[in-house]
Each structure stands twice: as C-alpha cells, then as structure tokens.
Amino acid sequence: MTDRYDEGMRIRRTVLGDAHVDRAEAGRTALDTPFQTLITESAWGTVWASDAITLRERSMLTLAILAATGNFEEIPMHIRATMRTGASQRDVMEAFQHVAVYAGVPKANHAIKLAKATFAEMEAADNA
C-alpha cells in the first residue's frame, strides 16, 4: 500500500473509530477492494488528511454536502464521527441551516431528522 493509503487509514480510524473501520474492512471483497483503496487514498488520505482546516470543520462540511446532495445514507455515520472530530450538535444544526437556505428545506429537514435520531442513539448508548 502507499503512504497516502496508510495516512488515509489513520485518518479514517481517527474520524470513524476503529470499530467502524474494522467492520468495513471485514466486509471488503476482491470486488470492492479497488474502490475501498480509492476512497481511502483520496477522501481520507488526501482531503481529510489535509491540515488546511480542522477535522471539526471537515465534519460540518461533509454533513452539509451529504444533506445538500441528498446522500442521506452516510449522515448517521458522520453524525457519530462528530464525537471524535469535535463538531457539536449546535455545529451540525448550523450546517443544516445552511443546507436549508442554499439547497432546500426538505433536504435539511430530513438530515435533521437523521441527526436527532443518531444523537439520541449515541446518548442512549452512553447511558447504558
């Protein structure tokens, strides 16, 4: 593997947590290995690894972009990541307010619904 892959895996584990990455890696097959390598090197090893902005800011941007483009499936994963990136619940709501104004209220509304449910799950797990 490349240095960019190794750095991407380090950042991916920092942001998403070892348990999440271990589950994803366990499900890797020969069919999706090229794709997994691509996202590990590009998304995690290049974009997320850059020190130009903080992980908190990247977390907020990622959530806003996912909501604005209607890619809702990954929002819960990135909401869970906020506990490691430092993005607060208020930060997330601010990002989704931008989505409402610039990309549409229905998209922001759905993202907020997902965020509320995920934050509630996280709180329940912390109190268990």
Please give the structural blueprint:
Elements: H1 3-16, H2 18-26, H3 33-47, H4 55-68, H5 75-85, H6 89-103, H7 105-127
Quick overview of this protein structure:
The protein is mostly helical. It is 79% helix and 0% strand. The protein has helices spanning 3-16, 18-26, 33-47, 55-68, 75-85, 89-103, 105-127.
What do you see in this structure?
Helices cover 79% and strands 0% of the residues. It is mostly helical and 128 residues long. The protein has 2 domains: 52 residues, no CATH class; 75 residues, Up-down Bundle (AhpD-like), CATH 1.20.1290. Helix 1 packs across helix 2. The longest helix is centred in the last third of the chain and has 23 residues. The radius of gyration is 15 Å and the shape is globular. It holds the Pfam family CMD. InterPro entries: 4CMD/NDH-1_regulator, AhpD-like, CMD-like, Decarb_PcaC. This is 4-carboxymuconolactone decarboxylase.
Structural class: mainly alpha
Report low-confidence residues grouped into runs of 5 or more.
Answer: none
Specify the number of helices: 7
For the record, give the distance between the C-alpha atoms at the N and C termini, rounded to a whole number. 39 Å
Look at the structure and give the CATH class of the largest domain: Mainly Alpha
CATH topology of the largest domain: AhpD-like
Q: State the fourth-level CATH superfamily of the largest domain.
A: AhpD-like
Q: SSE string, helix = H, strand = E?
A: HHHHHHH
Number of extended strands: 0
Quaternary status of these chains? single chain
Q: Bin the helical content.
A: over 70%
Q: How would a crystallographer describe the biggest sheet?
A: none
Strand content: under 5%
Number of domains: 2
Gyration radius, in Å: 15 Å
Roughly what is the average pLDDT, rounded to an integer? Answer: 97
The backbone outline, from C-alpha atoms, is globular
What is the level-2 CATH architecture name of the largest domain?
Up-down Bundle
Domain Carboxymuconolactone decarboxylase-like: 35-117
GO molecular function, one term: peroxiredoxin activity
Pfam family, one: CMD
InterPro entries: 4CMD/NDH-1_regulator, AhpD-like, CMD-like, Decarb_PcaC
